[in-house]
Every structure is written in C-alpha cells, then in structure tokens.
Structure prediction request, 147 residues.
Amino acid sequence: MDDDGAAPPLDAVPLRVKVGVESVAAGTAAAGAALGIGSIPMRPKEMSAMMRDIEFASRGITCRAWLCPPESEVLRNERGYPALVMAHGTSGVRQQLKQYVPRFTAAGMHVLAFNYRHFGTSDGEPRKLLSVRRQLQDYAAALDVIR
Prediction:
C-alpha cells in the first residue's frame, strides 16, 4: 500500500517468475514481454491437435488425463520445456479446464490436466468422494508422470 493507503497499480507489483533454477524479478508487463507470453493470442476452447489421453496410477487407482505438448519454442531451454500439472479444485473435472490448456501450450509448456480419483473419467469408488489427502496424492502421482 502507498502512504495514503491506496493499493499500487497492478503493473507496479513485482512478479517473480521461476525459470528452471533462475528467478527473474520484473513488473508484470515486463515479465510477460520477456517471456513472449503477451504476444501469444488467447485461443479459448481450442485443444491441441497433439493432445493424448493417458492414464496413471495413484495408490493403485487409475487416474485419467490429457497430456498436451508445447506448441512454441518460447520457453524451451537446455533442460527442455517447462511443464504444468492442472486439476480442478476439489470436486471439478478436467473438462472444466479445457479452455485454459491452449494458452499454456501456446506459450511453450507441456500440460497435464487430470481428473482426481473418484471424479470424471478416473476410476475410484464411491464416485464423487472428496478427500483432500487423496487429491494431494493424485497430484504427487501426476507430477511423477510429467517428470
């Protein structure tokens, strides 16, 4: 907050962007421009033609996901491409994330969007069982897949 109690404008708030093991501190507009993300057009509701349906196990139960490759070289470095794992909050399904996936793949990231156990296309009984502990386990299993 400023001395007069007003919040600073959003573009004045520093943004820390993690790239590999290096961190870049810049204003939000400068960070987007530096990564080339600001110039990539938004393509909501369009999925990558290269999207693959995959399965992985989480504590012995099958989770289903989309694995989408990067469509740009913008973020590629000597270690490859960055990756993003996505799942909907608590009781949603990956289909609700479909509109966001193209933005990240266009920016040059691998995206793994999955359904938690007990939800959507993933296995698990009873259906729609909400367990934050299990969802964290599912995230850990998804991270193992993307690595």
